[in-house]
Amino acid sequence: MEIYKFGSEILRAETQSVEDITDEIRDLLDDMIETMILAPGIGLAAPQVGHDLRMFVMNTEENQFDKIINPVVLEAEGVSTFNEGCLSFPEIFADVARPDWIKVRYLNEDGEELELERDGLWARCFQHELDHLDGRLLVDNLTQKQLRKMREELNQIENLGRQQNK
Ligand code: ZN
Fold first, then answer.
1. What is the pLDDT of residues 2-35, one digit of tens each?
2. DSSP string of 34-100?
3. Centre of ligand 1 from the C-alpha of residue 32, in Å
4. Would you name the residues annotated as active-site residues?
């Protein structure tokens, strides 16, 4: 699957909840996992591959692939800073502060509702991917100073993203 870069309109589009977890949705999640592995990355949200749906995939531990549908953060605590990357911002990494503990609810691909408490990389990645479903991108979490430093690289990516035209 093609990964849409910063500058593509789909990354800012409003997303829809997944009403029915059909075979089509499950196939899409499988394709997203394959695309994430090949990229390579540890998280990929549906808008990044051109679908305005509230779902994403993650691989924050070896051999563990999470398929996350209609996610909600119920509680969040603490704060930590981590050097984040994003497949829609090739070769850009930037420190982002986020809560370091979260309680979340989502559906898995079998339609089962899960409620989990997590910290560390899983929690970090979950929040980054959830941002994508709200049209919020890595650049939106940066300070003016951080943005100034990487302005040129960001402009280059944005031009590429605009040409992808989705
Ligand atoms: Zn991302």
1. 999 999 999 999 999 999 999 999 999 999 999 9
2. HHHHHTT-SEEEGGGGT--BSEEEEEEETTEEEEEEEEEEEEEE--EEEEE--TTSTT--EEEEE-S
3. 13
4. 129
